[in-house]
Design brief:
elongated; 21 helices; 6-stranded mixed beta sheet; 2 domains; 10 strands; single chain; binds adenosine-5'-diphosphate; ABC transporter transmembrane region fold; 4-stranded antiparallel beta sheet; disordered N terminus; alpha/beta; Rossmann fold
């Protein structure tokens, strides 16, 4: 409900927002609109031509056409045929033109919007991402953007056609006979009034439909990513049921919109019927008593139908419009989400890699004291470990160093410069992160390693793989380095994924290396292999190791022990063991002494 209100409050003028966003395409919009209008003008000509033909047959040499200087009735008919030919050709030509223009515009706009939104949210801070549902974001960038495309494809032309029809035909009617004109256009204000009322009532329903569609996206994304957990807990039935309920909520929300939108067309048709029969009866009377000509009557009858009939489509068009506007709001809201983290300006050059935190405190929203007065000092080129129980704040410290979040108090500095002052790209280019959760992309092994440095050569990639001890398993893959690894790298084992991630970090060749539980989820043999690579690559760089298993960090120059967000002790392995406190207890537990 909260998000629904958000959509409604920010979306009071979605069309204006969209037009503003599309300002760079103003020329194309005008051109496409002109083509739509001109096409409709030609399209309205046939009833006039039919009227003129009837006029020629009934009045012969005294017809309207004879005023053009063609006295012979047969010649008049030929002339009419020629005009029909030209008009038909022009109508088709403009139909082609507006079709191409609108549809290409729809393609361009949806393409640009998707890229704009993605480009924008990529720059949003990590805290924002953690608050979002990925499925919903995907629904916005896919479904909502497509909804907009559909409207530009068909809806815009429909609206222009209706407007042109109403204006041109009303004018024509007034030229022929204002009394009949009044009868035939009488339903239009009623229809427009009804349409606007309809619009205002259907808008919140479509906004709700979009939210429900987002919920489906969220659930699907979550379940497909977590299929292993679902299967292992035999939760298929439960998840099926959950999706069923979410999908039913979507259907229900749609049904509520359909109930309203479906009643719209029949109501319009009734209004049209009144206009049509009034024109028929009154116009017929005027023709019978000789006030208007038979040809004019024919035009009136045909035109009334041409005038009123497109209005029945108005319901469908408004429907499309409202859906598109509900989507526009969601897309543009996302695009207008403000980046609250201001980028720094300083570019790091010749990074030594010294890391220093002073009175560093941080809390996640609605949590208290995730980190409290943390003071660490990692001299350039040294290897420092941070250990502590799960949830003690180790990863959070890394997030602050990478500036995924800003501290609530104190600071963390690289080479003496507060990370808030450093340009984000420069800061992150100086740090290579190997984390427990490795993201692999649906590309070849080679391209996945190249992610560490886009400019690296094939040879450098292979060398990095060698240092990461990944050669053996890469060679055993069906196409070696060219083997495509599945989405998320699911075709590889945990240890193999970890090796690729280390190869990436080697390629990145950054002055600071962070290993966040990098070897915690692999077997002993793989761990030993990974350790060898890590020892090799940590040489000459500042290395921050976050580890659970103390055996992996006992050689570190310094070890900080974190508990409940506070540093409770620090020193070398030997010092900490002899101190006999928390570290010693953890060590004893892990070595089986306790
Ligand atoms: P560690 O890496 O030592 O296991 P973390 O730094 O991941 O610990 O987490 C420290 C604390 O912060 C934990 O209590 C955890 O629940 C909490 N936490 C971690 N990430 C978030 C988040 N995005 N939002 C709110 N709380 C979080």
């Amino acid at each position: 409900m909260l998000s629904l209100r958000l959509v409604m409050s920010r979306g009071d003028a979605p069309l204006r927002r969209l037009i503003k966003h599309m300002s760079s395409h103003r020329k194309t919009v005008w051109l496409a609109s002109i083509c739509s209008v001109v096409n409709r003008l030609f399209d309205l000509a046939p009833p006039v031509l039919i009227g003129a033909a009837v006029d020629v047959v009934v009045r012969g040499e005294g017809s309207f056409i004879s005023a053009l200087g063609v006295a012979n009735v047969h010649h008049q008919l030929w002339l009419l045929a020629a005009i029909t030919f030209v008009i038909w050709g022009c109508e088709s030509l403009f139909q082609y033109l507006y079709g191409v223009l609108w549809r290409n515009l729809a393609q361009t706009v949806q393409h640009e919007l998707r890229l704009d939104v993605y480009g924008h949210i990529q720059n949003l801070e990590m805290g924002w991402f953690l608050e979002q549902s990925k499925g919903n974001l995907m629904a916005i960038m896919n479904d909502d953007v497509n909804q907009l495309e559909r409207f530009l494809d068909e809806g815009a032309t429909d609206l222009l056609h209706v407007a042109t029809t109403v204006i041109v035909i009303s004018a024509l009617f007034f030229i022929i006979d204002w009394r009949v004109a009044l009868f035939s256009i009488a339903p239009i204000p009623l229809i427009l009034w009804g349409s606007f009322r309809f619009q205002s009532r259907i808008a919140p329903r479509y906004a709700d439909v979009r939210i429900k569609a987002g919920n489906i996206g969220t659930l699907l994304e979550n379940n497909l990513t977590g299929i292993t957990t679902i299967k292992s807990f035999t939760g298929e039935e439960k998840e099926y049921e959950r999706l069923k309920q979410t999908s039913e909520a979507y259907c229900e929300s749609n049904r509520s919109a359909i109930k309203l939108s479906a009643s719209f067309v029949p109501l319009i048709r009734m209004a049209i019927l009144i206009g049509f029969t009034a024109t028929l009866l009154y116009g017929g009377e005027l023709t019978l008593n000789g006030t208007i000509e038979v040809g004019e009557f024919s035009i009136l009858v045909f035109m009334t139908q041409r005038l009123l009939w497109p209005l029945t489509r108005l319901g469908a068009t408004f429907d499309l419009y409202q859906r598109a506007m509900a989507s526009t709001n969601r897309v543009l809201d996302l695009l207008e989400t403000e980046i609250s983290m201001q980028d720094g300006t300083q570019i790091l050059s010749d990074v030594k890699g010294e890391i220093h935190s002073e009175s560093l405190s941080f809390s996640y929203p609605e949590r208290n004291n995730t980190l409290e007065n943390v003071e660490i000092h990692i001299p350039a080129g040294s290897t420092v470990a941070i250990v502590g129980p799960t949830g003690s704040g180790k990863t959070t410290l890394v997030r602050l160093l990478l500036r995924f979040y800003d501290p609530s108090n104190g600071s963390i500095k690289v080479d003496g410069i507060d990370v808030r002052k450093i340009k984000l790209s420069s800061l992150r280019e100086s740090i290579a992160l190997v984390s427990q959760r490795v993201t692999l992309f649906p590309e070849s092994v080679r391209e996945n390693i190249r992610y560490g440095n886009q400019n690296s050569t094939d040879k450098e990639i292979e060398q990095a793989a060698m240092i990461a001890e990944a050669m053996e398993f890469i060679d055993s893959l069906p196409n070696g380095f060219e083997t495509k690894i599945g989405e998320g790298g699911y075709k590889l084992s945990g240890g193999q994924r970890q090796r690729l991630s280390i190869a990436r970090a080697i390629l990145k060749d950054a002055p600071i290396l962070i290993l966040d539980e990098a070897t915690s989820s692999v077997d002993n043999e793989t761990e030993a292999a990974l350790q060898r690579s890590l020892t090799q690559i940590s040489e000459g760089r500042t290395t921050l190791i976050i580890a659970h298993r103390l055996s992996t960090i006992r050689n570190a120059d310094n070890i900080y022990v974190l508990e409940n967000g506070k540093i409770i002790e620090s020193g070398s392995h030997e010092t900490l063991i002899s101190a006999g406190k928390m570290y010693k207890r953890l060590w004893d537990v892990q070595t089986g002494m306790q």
